[in-house]
Amino acid sequence: MTDIVVEPTAVPPTVAAAKTVVDLTSLGAMLLSQGAEAKTYRFALNGLDCIVKERFSKKYRHQQLDTKIQAKRHLMEIRNINKCRKHQIPVPALYFVDNISNRIYMEMVDGITVKSFIQQQQQSTNSNNSNEILIKLCLEIGRLIAKMHDNGVIHGDLTTSNILLKNDDIGGNSKIGELLVFIDFGLSYVSVLVEDKAVDLYVLERAFLSTHPDSEQMFDQVIKGYADYSASKTKATLSKLDQVRLRGRKKLAFG
Ligand SMILES: Nc1ncnc2c1ncn2[C@@H]1O[C@H](COP(=O)(O)OP(=O)(O)OP(=O)(O)O)[C@@H](O)[C@H]1O
């Protein structure tokens, strides 16, 4: 049986039906980054500026296992981006999905990572204004994560690199919350368990503290935003977070 791979180019379907997956760079895509599991390209999809995320094989893994893991992460990423979008949690729009090449063609967010933004603000000379902006930003991050959890989505890899901030006049910071976009849902899954929600927050806390010096107060604002979303819905998760932290400290101390 011949595999049919449909490439979203302007070529006629007879030409697009190919036995092998076409290298994106040969279609004019520009490689932006290569992570542990996927490559990210910038690509013009019939004139539409987009990002293509393509999962690649890990040669050290058993091939069948690798294919299974790739397919699962690809599927979870699509499913949970869609779920978030349905519930008005900001994520890129999905334009096209290819389940054979494991490629996701999505909206290109014109902006920077929250990681870079925090670093810029921490170096700013107007520290009062920067603090105010960072407080608003962190409150909103917390609120949106609570909303994601309330809708059953666990991100699985929350870091300040996996949240983007759209380019805008951030100096007029009243709408900073509207500029956030969550990406990288490859490790996401669906769960309503407080344990899973608490671990999701703990992963973000570790990322904050290891990436940004003196960020304890910023993370406190994330927690405040999370709690403010709905005290009744978030209370159990936040008390579980204390237990998860304790476990984390014991693990660090005793291995
Ligand atoms: N929709 C998007 N718009 C703009 N930039 C994006 C978008 N999606 C991803 N990127 C950029 O590509 C980078 C890698 O994307 P992503 O985190 O989804 O892939 P990844 O390979 O899983 O990364 P890593 O292994 O480093 O976690 C992001 O840090 C971001 O800079």
Give the key terms:
Phosphorylase Kinase, domain 1; nucleus; Transferase(Phosphotransferase), domain 1; five-stranded antiparallel sheet; alpha+beta; single chain; 2 domains; Bud32; three-stranded antiparallel sheet; 255 residues
Give the gist of this structure.
The protein has 255 residues and is of the alpha+beta class. Helix 4 packs across helix 6 (216-229) and helix 6 runs antiparallel to helix 7 (231-254). It has two domains: 24-107, 2-Layer Sandwich (Phosphorylase Kinase, domain 1); 111-253, Transferase(Phosphotransferase), domain 1, CATH 1.10.510.10.
Describe the model.
The chain has 255 residues and is an alpha+beta fold. It has helices at residues 13-16, 63-86, 114-122, 127-150, 194-211, 216-229, 231-254, and strands spanning 30-34, 38-45, 48-55, 94-98, 103-107, 111-113, 153-154, 163-166, 180-182, 189-190. It folds into two domains: 24-107, 2-Layer Sandwich (Phosphorylase Kinase, domain 1); 111-253, Transferase(Phosphotransferase) domain 1 (Transferase(Phosphotransferase), domain 1), CATH 1.10.510. 46% of the residues lie in helices and 18% in strands. A hairpin with a 2-residue loop joins strand 2 (38-45) and strand 3 (48-55). The protein is globular. Mean pLDDT is 89; it is low at 10-15. Residues 32-33, 35-38, 40, 51, 53, 92, 106-109, 113, 161-162, 183-184, 186 line the site of adenosine-5'-triphosphate (ATP). Adenosine-5'-triphosphate (ATP) binds at residues 32-33, 35-38, 40, 51, 53, 92, 106-109, 113, 161-162, 183-184, 186.
